[in-house]
Amino acid sequence: MRHRWFVIPLALGLAGLAGCSSDGNRREHPVLLALDALKQRVDEHGAAPPPALTRDMIEPIQVPLYLARLESRGAQALLFPIGENGADVTWVTADQITVIIRDGVLRATRGLGEDLMSASTPDSAEIAAAAGVTQREYYHIGPDEQTIRRKYTCDLSDLGAEDIVLLGHHYNARHISESCHGAGQSFVNDYWFDAGGQMRKSVQWVSETVGFLELQKLKD
Amino acid sequence: MTTLEQTGAGRRRFARGGALLIAALALPRETLADTPPAGRPTLNFYGVTGLIDMPTAQSQPDGQLSLTVSNFAGLTRTTLTFQISSRLSGSFRYTGTKDLNYAGFRDYYDRSFDARYRLLDEGRYLPDFTVGLQDFAGTGVSSAEYLVATKHLRPNLTVTAGLGWGRLGTYESFGSPFGDRPRIEEDTGGDLNADLFFRGPAAPFAGVEWQPTDRLGLKAEYSSDAYTLETRQKVFEHKSPWNFGMEYQASEYWRVGAYYLYGSEIGINAQFSFNPRNRPGGGDFGVATYPVQPRPDRATNPDAWTEEWVLQPDGSEILRANTAALLNEAGLTLEAMAVSADRVQLWLRNLRYDNNAEAIGRAARILTRTMPPSVETFEIVPVEQGIPAAKVTLRRTDVETLENAPNGAARLRSVADISAAHPTPPELERADELYPRFNWSLNPYLQQELFDPAEPYRADLSLRLSAEYEFAPGLALSGSLTKRLFGTLDEFERPNNSVLPHVRTETPRYVRDGDPGIETLTMAWYSHPARDLYGRVTAGYLERMFGGVSAELLWKPVNSRLGLGAEVNRTRQRDFDGMFGFQDYEITTGHLSAYYDFGSGYQAQVDAGRYLAGDWGSTLTLERVFANGWRVGGFATLTDVSAEEFGEGSFDKGIFMVIPMSWLTGKPSRAAFSNTVRPITRDGGARLAVNGRLFGLVNGYHRERLDTQWGKVWR
């Protein structure tokens, strides 16, 4: 008698395999996607690393620009504005992830996994005042696709003047930190305001699995 | 001024080809931190929450799915357990005992179902308290009932004590508190053994579980199972009631253990456990869509708001083309549109997004970019097989103000209206250029045959070539060809002892003789004859074993939890060779169906009528549908075929699972894997397997289902 118990989990995993169709994007198979990912890894390995971003490279660009960094994934991308709705501006990466920002304050994300779907946040001026307590309400999309509401109370503090460098440009900035707690979590957002009172750089919390998003305003 | 213009192709391409892309934010995708989740109760050799061979009173997290394989002394148990609700769980188990020499088999194989219900929750003084039924409907070899209590002494230390009946009441019993246990009829199995429950000798069992670290677990128990049958048949020697074990949580999903059982045997256990609610990749990594484009301020720019564009002769044509182009980019298709000065109705076909609310939300945002400012009302009508399934009405002002508003999804839902779609609204202009439409696909698939005593698992890997030609909305010719690549299904051969017409038991011949074969070749027509009514007629080679005509009518109001359907099929059995010929067996079958949504994802379906073997009866299907498209359910069919005529298993029953592709990949997709497992397939209670039944087509766009998915309307 032969035992083949080990194949049952495989069978229940239902071995999806590469298929093809008249409209390729409709029918994606995990193995096909895994092969793509593998190919990408190999390509990344083989190819020279992408050139480091320099001020010269962004000089010709005639639109406002953020440099976004996602620490938890070791990834970065440039953000371009794609739409405005009131004070909220939607910024997009080349691979169609969007970040919604109001005067530097992160409002929402789309395409990062555990996205911040919407939020009530203090405004930029309130943060710049660096006084008192702020309230934040985050609406995350949970793992089972349901909205999860999380409330935080935050304390602002002024950490004084700091010299920050954004792609070769120096700014004399004021460092404000916002320490939030609530909903079983705590996190600290950091903001740097330039001499003109504009938020030049920030590190803001998105969600538990996405972590912190760093934003550098490279072009206004 | 307000002249409408066709937008150039590619001009609005959504942020493609950014020359300065350095690295994608979404890449590399890391899996969730690989920490073992603290506090999830562990599983036992029966694959239910427990110690080693004994159960505990704890429950798995709601929705948890666990697959457990355990082995000791030649007993191998493979169990699938589903935590149906926070209190109720169900298990399906396949047990093989080597050299049992029982009931005419040398190695004995048995299939069993368990159910457990947690009656009390652990509190400061009270323990968790659970009642369990083990193998409650099988041949009864593993049958047992138990009452068990479990209490935490410390966060990482639990004690358990319980009373067992049946198999779990065989060691050091103190008597039969509820009377004698009647002998089980050793015939076909599969009946509910309700007259046995909690009867006969009862015996106590107990145990402790200590988790010194997050990953390491130590267990000790006193077992009330004497393994009477197994020791009598010399499978192993029961020397002691004490069992000991050590377990290791290897990852979030895997737990393995090694044990010393009954003073004589070494055992091992591997547990694979996950929750369908949680995506393995951590979330939805699908790309974003266009943001809302708010209209210019009416006070400062009144010209933009005029309605004179309706006089432009090609106006609606241009709006339709512009909208179609943007929808196309988002993977959506414009089927038809009716536009007037203040209102637009968009018939939308969604072939990409598993989340229907997301598809509707994306279409709404695209309409803000293509519709002139005077159009204030958006009516989005999702279309399946040409039939409008529902109508979602949104005010454009709400779409504009709530796009980035805190809790915007729930707030948009509170002002959105979900109602019935008009079957034929006036002014509707169809996108005629879409038809005729041809598409095809070539995909591999797995066909399985489980639980044959000679070989419990057989499978074939085959290729399926599918093609569809849509003549007009709702009218399509489609077919599929299959070709086996390799596998072991052709070895499957059992003398067919069925006394009923062989409607499902000739699978081996269909597999052997019908390769390559025509799986289906049908003409299907879908209609929406009146409000809340949907119709389907399918004719041709309906499934691998039957061909003929199938007609269905469904009544399902958009805002109702209840749906009612009727289906009539005139069919004839197909030849084994998978070509165009038929055999002599001809039958008219049909069902009246009722569908009910209990909320929170629990759905029931009752089908009553005549089955393929000519038997009359009904099928009850219960399932849990998760917002992300996962479905887990079970069904049972009772007909006027007696257990004896039915043969092994007594009646048709099984479990099924649908796993959405998007759950695995983290990208939107409407593809899904589905798998149905029956303990045994016989001829009684067999239903025609026609494609495209109506309830599955339209229900996803009805209120209950849209509401569970609405959190992603702004995704």
TrEMBL record, chain A:
Superkingdom of origin: Bacteria
InterPro entries per UniProt: GfcB (IPR021308), YmcC_sf (IPR023373)
Pfam families from the UniProt entry: YjbF
Protein name: Lipoprotein
Organism the protein comes from: Actibacterium naphthalenivorans
Automatic annotation (TrEMBL), chain B:
InterPro entries: YbjH
Pfam families in the record: YjbH (PF06082)
Protein name: Exopolysaccharide biosynthesis protein YbjH
